[in-house]
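Here is an idea for our session: we take a single protein and study its fold together. Start from the sequence, derive the backbone structure tokens from it, and show both lines together. Once you have written the record down, we can walk along the chain together:
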Amino acid sequence: MRQLFELRPWYKLVPDQSVIAAGQADGEDHIQAARAEDGSFLIAYLPTGKPITVARDKLSGEKVRARWYDPRKGTWSLIGEFDNSGNRKFEAPSTGGKDDWVLVLEDARKFSLELAR
């Protein structure tokens, strides 16, 4: 998890559950989200990998890059780049009780594609 936070200005993060447009649940499926104060990136922790729909209007920039971070292995998977409009559903690569994932959305102009591979 250290790598996840060291690659971005983590000190700008503020808790913000409003970025979750759909998919929030209680108990072990509860998703925790935070976004940078300037809207440059957001992070959502999915403890069981259940699908999440994100309100991208909380992010800055015309294009948003999405990635999955696997906290169990410390590895990244690029999802792609999208126009920054509307809501978008994301499905983790795997689901289940021990399949936690971190979804990272970032302003594609502000963060390098090479930042995390």
